Amino acid sequence: MIPIDKFLLEVKIDEKERQLEPEEKEQLLRERQEQLVRENHLLEYVWQLAGKYCPYGKINEKGEFIDYAYHFDNQYMNQAVFKFKSRYNNNLLNIDFDYNEYLSNGIADSIKAFGLDIEKYWYAILFARDYAIDYCKNSLCITNTAKEDLEELIYHIKENRIEENIVNFKSIDKSDKQVKDVKTFKNAVNPPPQFKNPISLTLEVGNKTPLKIENPYLIDFIANICNDRYCEIKDKIKDNSLWNVFQSKENKPESDTIKVCIFATMMMDIFNLNNINKHRQKSGTEISQNKYYTVSKIVYFTKLSDNENYEVDKETLKSNLQKFKGSKYRRFDTIY
Prior knowledge:
Structural class: mainly alpha
Strand content: under 5%
Shape: globular
């Protein structure tokens, strides 16, 4: 198999072809539609990744999201797939590794042993690599929305609270002689809030000395006020753009390790999306069917890292993926 030279971006006829007879134009359009369908199937794994990382579709009459990423046989195209095709056609993917080496260095054999299509996987490698590089280098860093920040503030304070220390006012007999006045009553039934771990809030204003709040009463009071008010207005602010808009912040490129982890996660996703569960090397063969080792070799082959450990074992990748797991990255890819 020889990699495609240029992908078809859309089904149309050019100015010169408009002079053809109607039957000829119809035949030409039919052939190009068939070519588009063939290429979409060839890019099946790219479509799968695009559907997960760059969803594109529409809301139907039932309010359901219809993802075009899995509609190979119609005219719709996921915009990420379209952009990938365009970048591929214009040699913008910066491919400095060879397809023939991919076929001969054992990687393609391993992919095939898993039951995956080596040609489709090749294009998925190119897409995932391009996505990971741009995501870590040029993507727009964004902050939480106001709604997300408020929810996290309430959650982290409440989650750290020792609930056993909370006393219900209604369960106290206010006529008890020991409760002499309101102040005494409050102190008796509402002891100082206790937290599982040390907690504080810090407010920074320009170059002024930061205000650090460590008083447990005040921190708990802030959380309660925020929570009560949020419960009152959360339905009203659900569609309010001021509460749900992202704010951009200074772009700082991510490390090579994060880039490798994003790429490797996308490569692993192809196994998962196609229900590939094999993970051991067959006895009597040098073909690896360990997903981590195969993906690790791809990392080194595609020159995302010059760490030779990726080529010889799986442990470096597994260790980095474990550290990466659960990490929250808020960035908008600038290409896809």
